[in-house]
Each structure stands twice: as structure tokens, then as C-alpha cells.
Write a structure and sequence with these properties.
By secondary structure, the chain is an alpha/beta fold. It contains 10 helices and 7 strands. It has 2 domains: about 120 residues, Response regulator (Rossmann fold), CATH 3.40.50; about 90 residues. Strand 1, helix 1 and strand 2 form a beta-alpha-beta unit.
């Protein structure tokens, strides 16, 4: 693509907070973004054509990124594709590349990191540099503004908007996690925690992110569940601005 072109990107992401972040980031490439939340929507939009790049979540409510890409490739669609995932396991990234994705972005990622990866893939930027990940560092408080502002290039208004969206979605995700633990539904639990982990990073929900990691490590632990529920309530009870 020419450096002054407006790219058209199909974003496939089911979590509203993460989707809002990625749409904001991708528009700065610059790009027009079509956002969908599942494989069914992606199949419809992708087959309509006109995209320069697909950004596909590795885990979706009605399938997975690798299966979606295989389905689209089987129908002759050759649009370049990047995967994004909250799972930093190198084996996961290797499997996604083997499935046909050109690269794998680990969430949470900064705005500048995502834009760099997209521009590099489309040939409108400089030579590829590994995108910087906005890690959630150990932090004693509920909200880590430093991490959130780093992910959003210092735009406090964006941080506050994403936190409002995050808090609106949090009760349903909290309940889904609790219900999955009580029902012993490991698949549902993994899906809910995976979805939540990335959005915690984007908004700097540091205490809740730590509780998510603890529950992922010990899904049968009553104390880990209690810690998660307490951290979720703390986030819901606190100011969305982190003050």
C-alpha cells in the first residue's frame, strides 16, 4: 500500500473493551475499521471483500481464529491476517503462525505497538520491530494509571472512556466466572478469564488482573475465587478514573 493510503481493516474481537481499544488504535494507522464479535460476523464481512488486513482474536465465542482463517482461505480469500491473543505462551503463537497468521500480537498491546505491526504488515511503515506489550506490573492499588496511559499513548480521556465500558461489562463477566467455577465448567472458565485478562491490561485494572492470573493458575481454589470476586467488587466500587 502507498504510505498515504487509508487501509481497510476487519477486526474480529468479542470483548467490548478490547474491541474499542483496538478500533481506536487501528484508526490511527490510518484505517477504516469494520468490527465484528464472532466468526459468523467475520465470515460475512470478509466474504464481502475490500479489506487490506484481518485482525483476528485467537478465541471467539463461536469458534477460534485458526479455524476461521482456515475457513476463509478454503474459499480463496487471501487477505493478510494477524492474530491477537491474551495468551503469551510461545507455543500458542507458534500454532497461530502455523495456521497461517503472519504474526501474533499479545494483548494488552500499546496503541503505537499495534499501529507499528499493522503498518509493517501492510508495507506502509518502517522495518518490523516487535510491538511493545503493555504488561500489567505488580501494583498495590485497584487502578494502575501508568500502565493504562502507556497503552493509550498518554490519552487520559481514552483511559477513562475504556474504564467506563470495562466497568459496565464487568458484572456479567464476574458472574460468568463465578458460575463456571461452581459448575466445574473448565472451558467456560478459561474463556471468561482469557477475555477478562486482556481488557484488565488495557484499562490498568491491576488488582483484578492479578486475581485473574491467580484463578487461572488454581481454578479449583476457593480462596482464588474469593480473591477474584473481592477484586472485581473493589473495581466496581472504586472511581473509574482511578483517583
Amino acid at each position: 500500500m502507498a504510505a498515504d493510503s487509508i487501509a481497510r481493516i476487519l477486526l474480529v474481537e468479542d470483548d467490548p473493551t478490547t474491541s474499542a481499544f483496538l478500533v481506536t488504535a487501528a484508526r490511527g494507522v490510518p484505517a477504516e475499521v469494520d468490527a465484528v464479535g464472532d466468526c459468523a460476523g467475520a465470515r460475512l464481512r470478509a466474504r464481502a471483500g475490500g479489506h487490506d488486513l484481518w485482525l483476528v482474536d485467537a478465541n471467539l465465542p463461536d469458534g477460534d481464529g485458526a479455524g476461521l482463517l482456515a475457513w476463509l482461505r478454503a474459499r480463496g480469500l487471501r487477505t493478510p491476517a494477524l492474530a491477537h491473543t491474551a495468551d503469551g505462551d510461545p507455543a500458542v503463537a507458534a500454532a497461530l503462525r502455523a495456521a497461517g497468521f503472519l504474526d501474533v500480537l499479545v494483548k494488552p498491546i500499546t496503541i503505537s505497538g499495534l499501529q507499528l505491526a499493522v503498518r509493517s504488515t501492510l508495507g506502509i511503515g518502517t522495518a518490523h520491530v516487535a510491538p511493545r506489550v503493555a504488561e500489567v506490573a505488580p501494583f498495590a492499588g485497584t487502578w494502575d494509571d501508568t500502565t493504562a496511559l502507556a497503552a493509550l499513548n498518554g490519552e487520559r480521556a481514552h483511559v477513562e472512556a475504556l474504564r467506563r465500558l470495562f466497568l459496565a461489562e464487568l458484572p456479567a463477566i464476574r458472574d460468568a466466572v463465578r458460575d463456571a467455577v461452581l459448575a466445574g465448567d473448565d472451558d467456560a472458565l478459561r474463556a471468561a478469564l482469557h477475555r477478562l485478562r486482556a481488557s484488565c491490561g488495557f484499562v490498568g485494572a491491576a488488582r483484578l488482573a492479578g486475581a485473574v492470573v491467580a484463578l487461572q493458575a488454581a481454578p479449583a481454589s476457593g480462596s482464588a475465587l474469593a480473591g477474584f470476586l473481592d477484586a472485581a467488587q473493589d473495581a466496581l466500587s472504586s472511581s473509574a478514573s482511578g483517583a
